[in-house]
């Protein structure tokens, strides 16, 4: 990775795949959907911990080299000549480690008004009526309420990402963090990308926001959730009525903590 690495993280259904699709237009950049590196990273951390008796033979320097080498080798063949953006919701919970391994790396965290995240996931599930999703362990039962409970739990798809985001937002490495809102990315993509490039210290690029189509259909099919990582050709904001029951929508309305300037204790940039 001769040109460095940055990270895309944040909340699900909040624009991370769209951001990657836009960045892919820039020949200087590599970006895509969530990579396997987050899973490999945590597995290596576990195997290098004291639960493994052979950890005795690993120094701190060796551990750092092994973890950094994971990224170097994964991206070596195809992308070492470009600026790499690796995507995973886990990265917000690993800022201290990322800062130690990659001193110049920054994190773009995509966020969205939380009730609309649940709405988007519920809409996706209902659009695949005859598919069972891995998001819910392929369970055929359940209701919109039980699905919301599962998603919002500490280890749920939304709950984990939300807690990780708060950890980064209030942590000591918060200066490495940019929060990019879904509304800005879809309503004013040129403004959003200008802010991203400025935050990264990279020269701007003239993107075509009418030709950003991207999909990982085979991967989504294996998850039983077709369309999970599908980006439409044109960047645009779609106004619609929520399909969530009103009480469920209200349940999550106060969770978008980044909208309150008084809670932004470390001055994180929110676009």
Topology summary:
Blueprint: E1 5-10, H1 16-23, E2 29-30, H2 37-47, H3 60-74, H4 76-79, E3 83-87, H5 95-101, E4 107-111, H6 114-127, H7 144-152, H8 157-169, E5 177-181, H9 182-187, H10 189-200, H11 217-222, H12 246-251, E6 269-270
Helix pairs in contact: 2-3
Write up what this structure looks like.
With 271 residues, this protein is of the alpha/beta class. It has a single domain (5-270), classed as Rossmann fold (3-Layer(aba) Sandwich), CATH 3.40.50. The chain has helices at 16-23, 37-47, 60-74, 76-79, 95-101, 114-127, 144-152, 157-169, 182-187, 189-200, 217-222, 246-251, and strands at 5-10, 29-30, 83-87, 107-111, 177-181, 269-270. It is globular, with a radius of gyration of 19 Å. 32% of the residues are buried.
Low-pLDDT stretches are none
The secondary-structure class comes to alpha/beta
CATH secondary-structure class: Alpha Beta
CATH topology: Rossmann fold
How many structural domains in the coordinates?
Answer: 1
Main β-sheet: number of strands, strand sense, barrel status?
6 strands, parallel
């Amino acid at each position: 990775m001769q040109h460095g690495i940055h990270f895309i993280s944040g909340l699900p259904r909040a624009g991370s795949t769209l951001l990657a699709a836009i960045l892919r237009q820039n020949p200087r950049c590599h970006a895509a959907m969530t990579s396997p590196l987050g899973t490999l990273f945590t597995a290596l951390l576990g195997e290098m911990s004291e639960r493994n008796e052979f950890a005795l033979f690993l120094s701190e320097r060796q551990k750092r080299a092994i973890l950094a080498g994971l990224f170097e080798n994964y991206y070596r063949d195809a992308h070492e000549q470009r600026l790499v953006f690796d995507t995973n919701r886990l990265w917000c919970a690993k800022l201290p480690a990322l800062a130690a391994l990659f001193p110049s790396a920054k994190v773009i965290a995509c966020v969205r008004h939380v009730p609309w995240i649940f709405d988007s996931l519920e809409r996706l599930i209902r659009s695949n009526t005859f598919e069972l999703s891995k998001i819910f362990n392929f369970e055929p039962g359940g209701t919109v309420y039980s699905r919301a409970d599962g998603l919002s739990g500490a280890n749920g798809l939304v709950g984990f990402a939300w807690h990780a985001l708060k950890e980064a937002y209030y942590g000591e490495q918060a200066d490495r963090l940019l929060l990019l809102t879904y509304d800005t990315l879809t309503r004013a993509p040129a403004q959003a990308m200008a802010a991203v490039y400025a935050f990264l210290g990279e020269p701007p690029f003239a993107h075509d926001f009418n030709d950003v189509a991207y999909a990982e259909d085979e991967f989504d099919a294996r998850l039983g959730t077709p369309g999970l990582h599908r980006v439409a050709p044109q960047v645009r904001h779609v106004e619609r009525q929520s399909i969530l029951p009103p009480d469920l929508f209200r349940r999550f309305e106060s969770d978008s903590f980044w909208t309150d300037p008084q809670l932004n204790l470390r001055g994180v940039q929110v676009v």
